Amino acid sequence: MKTREDIRETLRQLLVEMFEVDPSAISDDAKLYEDLDIDSIDAVDLIVEFRSLTGKQIDPDVFKAVRTVEDVVNAVSDIIGTP
Amino acid sequence: MLLAAWGNSVSRRNDFYFCRIIAAGVGFILFGLGGLLLGYVIFPLISLMSADRRSAMLRCRRCIQMSFRIFIGYMSWVGILTWEINGIELLDKSGSIVIANHPTLIDIVFLISMIPNATCIVKASLYKNIFTRGPVSWAGYIPNNEADTLMASCEAQLADNANLVIFPEGSRSVPDKPLKLQRGAAHLWLRSRCDLSMVTIRVNPLTLAKHQKWYEVPYDRPHFQLVVKGERLAEDAESDSNSPSADARTITRQWQNYFTREITA
Fold this sequence. Notes:
- Chain A has 4 helices and no strands.
- Chain A has helices at residues 4-19, 40-54, 60-64, 69-80.
- In chain A, 19% of the residues are buried.
- Chain B has a single domain, classed as Glycerol-3-phosphate (1)-acyltransferase.
- Chain B has a 7-stranded mixed beta sheet, with helices on both faces.
- In chain B, α2 runs antiparallel to α3 (53-77), α3 (53-77) packs across α4 (107-114) and α7 packs across α9 (244-264).
- Chains A and B meet through α1 and α2 of A and α6 and α9 of B.
């Protein structure tokens, strides 16, 4: 994962494979809880997955403020330091 | 003329309607006083007479179970409601999860009155409410606000042989809306793989539902019917994908279909 586009694509795959999200429902401003049915337990699983993919520690508190797909991309990209 | 109108307007209000309103009010007062008495007098005394925190907690749970039996006895004796249960013997377990649909405010009273060593997940505000604070904390009920530790607390209490009551809807059912279960209970069951009981609660006519006030008593006396199904259904609900989040979705869907079928049957 180098670019924001990579992160976006990885997230899309995780959402579809892990959480049975309908790919057509995923857009940048889709809300995780309301639109994609991702609950707090899923969010923790998602953090664990990103942690093992990036090898970086991810503070769960950062993810608490996350609401949309775009927010996740921003949070992950801040952590791994993509341009 | 006036008399006729009066007669018409009350004719649909059956089963001592006005008496039932008063009895419901008295019931709320008794519940509150009971909470104060248990929380500030009885349970501290029990605690003084118990060897440790855990044995005090078990005695307090037993005491709440008995109090709720008395409370249900009051409600049926004064005619607020009638009730029946099928399969009560299936609730006599240890370290099990009990899931139920949640049509009314007093579902938990029925369930805890019938389950030995029962614990449950409670709204965090009950830990602040003066009437409920004592009992919920002495009995070690699990507040729902600690998201990071909630799952671990539930697992710890199951491992300690408590029977954990969960309403997977998270809050009372919204009347006339389809049931919507959250997935936390399924996650917990997948992790612990403990015994599971499913309790369907049917209430007709509906009373003490979400957004309903205590004095909005139905015109006919409500009947509560509880049906317990055992673990066989839990095996049916098993799922063998490698992803816990997919399994939790599958199981939650199965539970949701089960309850929906049962309450509309």
